[in-house]
Write a structure and sequence with these properties.
five-stranded antiparallel sheet
Length: 283
């Protein structure tokens, strides 16, 4: 399992509540009493903050867990056994080698036969902006938002998804090599961006390739169409005292999404567009 052999990151637990207490650093959680205790609880967990995401790798005894949510989406790759997730009053059964799981931010319950797998906690705005940056001109931003707003079981039996899942797991395993090479190598590798993009390909299987993605950081070239449209609108209203709330109304996106998208596509914040936004509206 990725990360579990990393000194300083990996820890062993002999109590389910201690395991949940460690998880509390990232998402408020508490343990429910398992329906059938099967011997001594034994589990190993590793946690790695990485860019816009936090990666948890775990392997050990079964557990029942409830979480009130932390505002982060869950990208789940089970390693062994069956994991049942209760989201929005529905149970989703994720079997190893059969499906991956996406859970949007919100409360959830977990039951499993073995606590084993990799869970990536990710900023939902970062996930959305990555999907929009990868989308071609035929994709609807409304459609992409809708797909990321609901839980999904992602089947991995098909050839395409099998290959993507193998690449994704190999990418998680490469974290160990990057960590051993040093923190600066891990940071500059941008492996978090690769992980996010692989998950987007699994979540939105019909995604078309964006136009000339290599040049998406320039306003004059290609990029996300809605970012370019909004940037043009800002320039056209440069003589007016625009605020971030004006951009939220014009685009339909939150200020966090706006900031992420502008930095990703244009290399600057919305406020840097001709200094159009007053400092009072900055978060």
């Amino acid at each position: 399992m990725p990360l579990l052999g990393q000194p300083g990151l990996s820890h062993a637990f002999d109590c389910p509540q201690s395991w949940a207490d460690q998880l509390n650093a990232w998402t408020p959680s508490h343990v429910c009493e398992p329906r059938a205790r099967q011997g001594q609880f034994v589990n190993r967990m590793a946690m790695l903050p990485l860019g816009c995401m936090r990666i948890l790798s775990t392997h050990g005894s079964a557990i029942q867990l409830e979480s009130t949510g932390s505002g982060l989406a869950h990208l789940v790759m089970p390693y062994r056994g069956l994991t049942r997730w209760r989201v929005e009053r529905h149970w989703l059964d994720s079997w190893t080698h059969e499906s991956l799981l996406y859970v949007p931010p919100g409360p959830l319950q977990i039951e499993n036969t073995v606590t084993a797998g990799v869970v990536t906690f990710v900023d939902p705005d970062a996930l959305l902006q990555t999907a929009l940056s990868m989308a071609g001109v035929h994709e609807s931003s409304v459609m992409i938002k809708a797909m990321l707003s609901s839980p999904q079981l992602i089947p991995v039996q098909g050839v395409r998804n099998q290959r993507l899942a193998k690449v994704l797991y190999s990418t998680y395993q490469n974290l160990d090599l990057l960590i051993s090479a040093g923190a600066d190598v891990l940071h500059h590798s941008r492996i978090d961006d690769q992980i996010l993009r692989l998950w987007v390909l699994l979540l939105i299987p019909g995604l078309h390739a964006g136009d000339d993605c290599s040049s998406r950081f320039s306003l004059g070239e290609t990029g996300s169409a809605w970012v370019k449209t909004l940037a043009t609108w800002i320039e056209a209203h440069a003589d007016q005292p625009l605020a971030l709330s004006d951009l939220e109304r014009q685009s339909g996106y939150s200020r966090r999404s706006l900031q992420l998208a502008f930095r990703a596509h244009l290399g600057c914040s919305p406020g840097a567009m001709g200094e159009a936004l007053p400092d009072a509206e900055s978060p």
